[in-house]
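Dear Dr. V.,

Thank you for agreeing to look over these. As mentioned in my earlier message, I'm a first-year student in the group and I'm still getting used to reading structure tokens, so any feedback on how I've presented them would be very welcome. I ran two proteins. I've put each sequence directly above its structure. The first is here:
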Amino acid sequence: MNTAWEEAIKHNDAQVVLGLLGKGADMNALDRYGQTAIMLAAHAGHRELVEILIAHRANLNTTARFGLSALMLAVVAGHAEVAHLLAKAGADLTLRGTGAPGFAGKTACDLAAERGMLELSAELLPKP
């Protein structure tokens, strides 16, 4: 991922994000930590950017270090509204964190429950 994505998301700049998408920039490219544009936006709680990236078909289920997806990053950062949006858009509720204490083997539902986000946790319960 180039720094233009990182800067646009850091500054919550929808116009720059739309410009990058219009120029064909790869929103699913990975930054130095293995995160995509939607992962950065979700972790920062930038709902509008997440909506834009979903509308442009960003991969919702890429996982970064420790196996965390955009949905899981939104939960960890306490952004329930963004997590709800990602779940509604089809984020995989069965993904589990890997390799790091506090994340290994846990789903977004587990992470939400641990953070006292019980309503969100119930929504994120994987459906059989």
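The second protein is here, in the same arrangement:
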Amino acid sequence: MNAYDYTVITTDKKRIQGSLWADSKEEVRTKLKLEGYVICSISQSSTKSVSWSHKEVSTTAYQLGLLLQSGISLRRSLELLTEGSKTMLYRSLYEGIQRGQSLSEVLRQKGFPPIALALLESGEMSGNVGESLQYIASYYERERKYRQKILSAISYPLFLLVLMNVFFLVTILFIIPSFTRVFATMHIELPWMTKGLFVLGTSLREHPLIYVGIHAVVIGLLIYAFKQSAIRYRFDRRLWQLAQHNTFLTSLYYTNILHIWALLLDSGISIINTIDITKHIWRNLYGETCSNHVYAMLCKGHSFCESLKSASIGNPFIWQMVAVGEESGELVAMLNHCSHYYESLLTQYIARMERLMEPILLTIMGVGIAILVISVMYPLFTSISSLSGQ
């Protein structure tokens, strides 16, 4: 189903424009004729497919789930959301439901995230679509806040780094040259640090494109290397191995995935399908390989705990909690407990990083400023003292 733009003339001779979702131009033409319009033009819309952000997923799921849990039918809920929205998303969902498609089928065509689709399909099978949508909304809202927490932790250090670089560039390009001319007239021997600073400033002013080109080439090579599967795989494997002994990396990897496993299992999805659905969200190629190994072990009849150990996913704490959950029938509760534990650790690490990064960067900035000042002022003091000695 695609979006089509149309221009028509109404019965009272007014020209109007709009959009419709349909499978073909003929279907759009038929709909418009049934409404009594004179068709001027119909063309397929150039609107790109929807790219779902965490906020959009949580908002859409929350609004639709709230209406459904209030006892309003799916079609009427989509009609109400269409009237209050400026986007064509709800209209396209309504058109798909009118054709007899399920909500999950229509959303899959719109690029809805796989985890949300799995939860929605589970709700459709059990007859609890509204509850499943609320699960989706709460999960993606949690993920959005989690990402905002990490971004807020690194935004201030990044600002200080940018400010520091701008300060040094302005100093080297515009302030240092005036001292270069002063020292040239004084005919004194400059220390190696001052000479290096002057040479750097001169080369930056005379050959700026060379420095820009070098940085562009280095960044391009790093991006190219990171996109190579073999290099990326080795890098991700090294990170994975470090995560076995580093609490911060462990928290970073497992906080999210443990919560997703618990959420999918709690919604009625089998453990095998849960692993299959979540194998692409590790953001680590080696982790995806390990997840495939877990899937294969589960298909052979091994327990979840044995599969995780065999694939080197998790650590003794997680394995013990999973084993207890499997024995007691409380696997979802154990996974949630592990997720909350690592989330609290991650929050502590982020708070500690925020406290430490500011003084560290300010210290680096102070050392840099001190080097600039010493490089310029030391020759001046030396020349003044030599003149006073004469």
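From my reading of the second output: Residues 2-44 form one domain. The mean pLDDT is 84. Does that match how you would interpret it?

Kind regards,
E.
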